[in-house]
Amino acid sequence: MTAIDEFVLRARGLRKEYGTGEGLVRAVDGVDLDVRAGETVAVMGPSGCGKSTLLHLLGGLDRSTGGEVSLDGRRVDLMSERALARLRRADVGFVFQSFHLMEELTAIENVELSALLAGRSPRAARRRAEELLARVGLTERARFLPSALSGGQRQRVAVARALCNEPRVVLADEPTGNLDSAATLDVLRLFESLHDTGQTLVIVTHDARIAATADRLITMRDGAFVDETRLTGGSTGRLGALVGLED
Ligand SMILES: Nc1ncnc2c1ncn2[C@@H]1O[C@H](COP(=O)(O)OP(=O)(O)OP(=O)(O)O)[C@@H](O)[C@H]1O
Ligand SMILES: [Mg+2]
């Protein structure tokens, strides 16, 4: 028996179409998804198959043209713009391939901005940002601008920012797409530790090593799920062996 509440994120018949007639693109074409609390789901598939579009629909960054999405039982597809803005601020943490940091703000300011926007006091926001930067191993770099950080460090700031308001789910869109392999391992370890702390995660990735950290791997093609594999590598400590790391 599975209680509905167990699912943080659900989609039913989810669709997103662009254009009309000859130019019609079915970017997401009838997706059903159930993500349990604490689960890490990886989504892989060829370029253009609809992975980013799907993440945007799941996190309320974009509106579907059909079907349902719910987060904690709340219908995202029926929300007002205002409610969606609140959802994106408080309930969902996004991590993007290109980091999306504010270049004129320091690492710590980038992180605390999220907390401030969610209504925390400046002092509480600063404390939270310090705590998160420590967690991603960047205490020493807190006052650096993004331009003075490596790709892996920037992505760790972006992850800290995504976690700032204790989101119900973190949605990551090719979080290692712009990283070299050392930085990829860094970010991969960070996602593993999030998994270990019970954070619910959906990660779109081209990197099999990242996918191997998940509980479940979904393959997408032409806007639809075509395959699903349950994995055991995620939280069982086999990952290190898999990627050839000695811990
Ligand atoms: N704003 C838009 N207008 C028209 N078509 C779009 C738009 N955004 C995306 N698409 C189309 O929707 C499809 C899915 O795009 P999406 O960005 O979700 O793919 P993806 O799987 O994330 O690809 P990649 O791996 O290259 O990031 C593509 O065919 C794309 O061209
Ligand atoms: Mg994409």
UniProtKB/TrEMBL annotation:
It holds the Pfam family ABC_tran. Gene3D superfamilies: P-loop containing nucleotide triphosphate hydrolases. The keyword Transferase does not apply. PANTHER family: ABC TRANSPORTER RELATED, IMPORT ATP-BINDING PROTEIN. GO terms for molecular function: ATP binding; ATP hydrolysis activity; transmembrane transporter activity. It comes from the Bacteria. Keywords: ATP-binding, Nucleotide-binding, Transport. CDD domains: ABC_MJ0796_LolCDE_FtsE. GO terms for cellular component: membrane protein complex; plasma membrane. This is Putative ABC transport system ATP-binding protein. SMART domains: AAA. It comes from Actinophytocola oryzae. Residues 9-247 form the ABC transporter domain.
